[in-house]
Every structure is written in structure tokens, then in C-alpha cells.
Amino acid sequence: MTATPLSTLLQHLSLQTLPNEVCRLFHGWGRCYPGLEQITVDWLQGQLLISLFKEHDQQWLDALKSELLKLVESQPWAERVSAVILQHRYANGAPVDLVYGELSAMPVVNEQGLKFGLSLGAKQNMGLFLDMRLGRQWVRSQSDGKRVLNLFSYTCGFSVAALEGGAEHVVNLDMSKAALKQGKVNHQLNGHDLGKVSFLGHELFKSWGKVKKLGPYDLIVIDPPSFQKGSFALTKDYQRILRRLGDLLTEQGSVLACVNSPDVSAQFLIDEMAREAPQMHFESRLPNPPEFPDINEDSSLKCLVFNAKSA
């Protein structure tokens, strides 16, 4: 990487003010900034998290750290920054370097009036996918009085949004019991009635009976990983979920189907839904947050809304 891309990154971080809630400040993944494709920067309401997805030489890393220190010290918002953290996502365990300040490993952040607990420095992902902000907003707007199924729920961000939107009950399913434990904490942070939430720490394809028993559902959110060793491969296992929708949805039910792989198009979801669940029709694709620009829209996050044809 040359000095020019580094200068571009610093220009994007030279802000007059910082957001009042958690937010992505720089998104290199979208390939809109040559030479910076493997870098993202997130504002965690007091902490700046710079994530590197590719190894760089020590000289470049030293230059980056030096420039970040100068940037923080020169900005009008310097007093709001308690830590600058560099995370090496490409390395085993995704270790972090503390560039400035003192790390707060378990911060609580706000997004659209909702609170979420994060985990920094110990895990690859911090506990909240910021590019899904408008997806959570949509679920919140659609959940009043509804039973919601949240598949691959991770730390239950969609569930928190659904309960805040007035959902009658939400069922969260994820293989990671640790993620579900944090999901419970997220609900508690928002003062939610846990009697309206179920947490299933199971592998989906071995748990259809339990999932069906808690239904039927008015809204199903499907947000799987692109690949999970031994349990999920997107291009062959997504269909196994879609063909079950008839048994899980109410007659007027809706589905928010998501794909985060840059190699899988929105049309894949539309075609597979038509094949496996012909009772559903494609309604719309949700926009992505503007802070996540992408040179190719179909490479970015895809969140598609489907409604039952009888609706």
C-alpha cells in the first residue's frame, strides 16, 4: 500500500463531529477506495476500531499507527475518544493492538435508541453487524403483535428490534449458546420481557420439530453465515430452509431473507424462493446503509422481503 491510500483513509476520518451512536466511519470492503479494500473503521461511541483483513508489512503498520495518533490528537472530538484499537482480522484469533488509550472490552452502544453489548479483543466479531442496521429497522417496523422466528440469530439483534417493535413473541435459534447468552443480555439492556423470547441453542437442521412447535410465525428472518464448517454452506443449504417455510409461516406471513456473501447474488435468493417456496413472492430489496458503499450492489449485503401470495 502506498501513502496515497493511507491519506485517503485519514481524510475520511478527519471529521468535524462524531456520530452519537455506533456507526461505520470507513468501509473499504466495497472496493470504492483502491488500496483500502481490506480496511474498515467503526466508531463504537468512545472507541475507534480499525479492522485489517489483510496482513501488511511492519513499516506500513507503524505509519498507520503514527498517523492515527496524530489524527486523534488534532481533531475537535479528541476528548470523546478513549481508545484506538487495531484488529488483525486475518490472523488466528483476530488479535488487537491498542494504539491509544485504554480498551473497554465490554462496551454498551446505542443504535436507533436500542442498546447492544459488544465484545472487543477476544473474538473475531464484536457482536453486532453494523451493515444490518436498516434490516433491524425494518423488522422493528413490521413486528407489532407478531410471532417472529429469528434463524441464525447470533446475539439476537433482530429479536431486540422485534420486541421493541411490539412483537408478541420471538424465537431465536443459533448453534452458539454464548451468542444466545449475549442476546439475552441485549434484551435485558433494553428492559424487555424475557417471557416473550425463546432461545434455542441448537443446529437448525436437527431441530425442525422444536421450531415448528413454537410456531406458526408471522415473520421469519433468515440471516445465515456464508459458510459454517460442518453445519451450513449457503449455496446448498439455504434451499433446505426455504422448502420448510410452508410448515412454519402463517397464511399471510413474511420472510426477510439475507445473504452477506459477495459471491452470491440477490437473484439467487429470488430464484431459489420461487423454486422451493412458490407460495411466496418477492416484494422488495432493503437498501443498505449509505456508510457501506459498494462498487457493485450485488456484492454487498442482500436483504430481500418476501410475502405470502395470499397476503
UniProtKB/TrEMBL annotation:
Residues 24-306 form the S-adenosylmethionine-dependent methyltransferase domain. Gene3D superfamilies: Vaccinia Virus protein VP39 (3.40.50.150). GO terms for molecular function: methyltransferase activity. CDD domains: AdoMet_MTases. Keywords: Methyltransferase, rRNA processing, S-adenosyl-L-methionine, Transferase. The keyword Disulfide bond does not apply. GO terms for biological process: methylation; rRNA processing. The keyword Transferase applies. PANTHER family: RIBOSOMAL RNA LARGE SUBUNIT METHYLTRANSFERASE YWBD-RELATED, SAM-DEPENDENT METHYLTRANSFERASE. This is Methyltransferase. It comes from Pseudoalteromonas rubra.
